[in-house]
UniProtKB/TrEMBL annotation:
GO terms for cellular component: nucleolus. This is ATP-dependent RNA helicase. The gene is BnaC03g48730D. The keyword Lyase does not apply. It comes from Brassica napus (Rape). The lineage of its organism: Eukaryota, Viridiplantae, Streptophyta, Embryophyta, Tracheophyta. CDD domains: DEADc_DDX18 (cd17942), SF2_C_DEAD (cd18787). It is an enzyme of class 3 (hydrolase). RNA helicase. It comes from the Eukaryota.
Amino acid sequence: MGNLDLEQHSPEKEEMKTKKKRSRDKAKILKQLAKREVKEPKSITDEEPKKKKKKLKQVATEDEETEAISDEEPKKKKKKKKAKQVEEEGEESGGNGIMTNETFESLGLSDNTHKSIKEMGFARMTQIQAKAIPPLMMGKDVLGAARTGSGKTLAFLIPAVELLYHVRFTPRNGTGVIVICPTRELAIQSYLVAKELLKFHSQTVGKVIGGEPRKKEVEILVKGVNLLVATPGRLLDHLENTDGFVFKNLKFLVMDEADRILEQNFEEDMKKIIKLLPKTRQTSLFSATQTSKVEDLARVSLTSPVYIDVDEGRKEVTNEGLEQGYCVVPSAKRLLFLLTFLKTFHGKKKIMVFFSTCKSTKFHTELFRYIKIDCLAIHGGMEQSKRTSTFFQFVKLETGVLLCTNVGARGLDFPRVDWIVQYDPPDDPTEYIHRVGRTARGEGAKGKALLVLTPAELQFIQYLKAAKIPVEEHEFEEEKLLNVQAFLEKTISENSALSVSAKEAYKTYISGYDSHSMKDVFNAHRLDLKEVAASFCFSSPPKLLLKIHREGDGYRSKREPVNNKFNRGRGGRPGGKTKFERY
Ligand SMILES: Nc1ncnc2c1ncn2[C@@H]1O[C@H](COP(=O)(O)OP(=O)(O)OP(=O)(O)O)[C@@H](O)[C@H]1O
């Protein structure tokens, strides 16, 4: 028996088996791709001009982000160093289970894709990549879940690029792959990764996102964008209105952060988009969190999907390198608490602070700058050009503070963030997971997260624990707070612009609170307005018309039960945003 066991688990045999399996998979993938090439060339190659095989490279116009990636040499070096560091840290610490020993080389990718991945400094695959890339390259529909910062972007972009290459897409064939992202910044980020992957290929890449000039986008779409990254609203706009946008050859649709994309405020657009796109295509849904809506969509619109959940069975849903705490702070002291925190770490750490509304983010940015706390801001009320430049500014910073709404919660890959502060609570555990996922990303990475709750909101911790999120309480030390309440109130009362901004922030904070989906925890009727006003630098609540839903008047929790099979307690998502648009 002992012998038999040894025989079965001999490392050589295991290795042989894996190698054999890999080469079988590789052969299958190549066969599959070849089949697709044979099956579909008509609709595609027929449109290709025979003589003019001009290599049209990267049709996307040069834009602001080019500047951020223009220092080619240092960037390459930095990346190689980073990848080496990631691997070493992973090995030293025993890793946190994100990396595998499987190499990208074993996938049998095209030389040009492989060359790009090498330039990015990656040799071994992460778990989601090792599990999702082979079935995706075989043309299967995939529903993929893996923790934040574990490399999902390459997991779908590598198969996308390989598909375009093997089917020999040219600009004339139009769009073969569409990647839909919920925020503009995430779309820009994914577009840049796609651009890097396509660097040595002839296929074209572009993006269409809200807030950018449509005309420029129309021009690149008409020229032909093979891999298109888009936000839902702007994509729908082009699908419906842009003559010359060829999408009938679409082969692969990816929804990144699928659970977010299927929420209420995107749902209508998504239904229309799906209706307009060709039906025979490969579809893939990715996110760190899933909801029953994603499952429903997978059931009705994916063909025999492969379900991949690399973190199934983990005791915690957040990353091991993440230290998570919460502090119970009386409403009236919240601002002083945040100021004390920022005074302590300002200039030493890279920090993201989450707010619930645009106006509140705007007010706090103005106030902090006024009192000489340097900070950046990203929220939905800003011009896109400013949002984009701020995004790249924060990417480059070693230390600094970014105040943001949930536009910063999903998918963004800011390097080396030390602290995530949730000054205003998230909508639910799912949103919590994505916000804290902006730190401790990748193998061996570390980071800290702090959630600020008022005594009335403490019950939220039970929801976090039920969703397998470990949080420890930090003591609230009132005596250590900066003693500046009177100074702040005076500052606001004497500065009319700040005062107007504070009033708007106060008002939207309350209406935002009222639209909260977990009414059992975040109940606007339990807010003490005098205390809330103090946290916006008012000695008494400003006289404003506040609309708060009456209790019993449709005022109930929209929380969706977390009991579907694929979700497995990841912190299910309630019904999504209500009338009040907060981003
Ligand atoms: N094979 C790899 N080896 C090392 N690092 C990698 C590998 N693949 C991706 N990365 C890096 O890991 C980081 C996180 O990747 P990515 O942004 O794709 O995560 P994600 O799973 O999409 O996260 P989120 O759920 O927050 O969107 C990126 O900086 C990326 O460059």
